[in-house]
Amino acid sequence: MSRSHKGPKPEEIETARRDPRLRRALHVGHTDPEWRMRGRCLSVDPETFFPEPQSNQTPHAALALCSGCAVRSACLASALEAGDRNGVWGGTTPRERQAMFVAWRDAVPVA
What is the pLDDT of residues 81-110, one digit of tens each? Predict the structure, then answer.
């Protein structure tokens, strides 16, 4: 079985809990429904953010775009709230978000 089918390791979850991107997303939450209209990704081909896993494409271009985006925390919060495990969201890879999702789930109160 490949590593991608397993959950994150405990040390990955602990690292995610300390990740400043997750902390900012927890603070921002998904309180801004208009965040998508201000994202740097708005004028970029969406495929940039969803490279094929088996291809030679890397998410570097998407991560670079996210690094200077003013709404990346809201974007990450939205992806974590939705449990989205594909593509680049809020400057994170699917692998990073897998551990962040566990930390998010533990930190966000159930409504």
Answer: 999 989 999 999 999 999 999 999 888 766
Q: To which residue do tokens 């930190």 refer? A: 107
Q: Which residues does the chain have with pLDDT short of 50? A: 1-4
In three-state secondary structure terms, 89 is strand
> Domain for residue 2, yes or no?
no
pTM score: 0.85
* 66 domain residue, yes or no: yes
What total number of domains does the chain contain? 1
Residue 57, domain extent: 9-107
**How many angstroms separate the CA atoms of 83 and 57, rounded?**
23
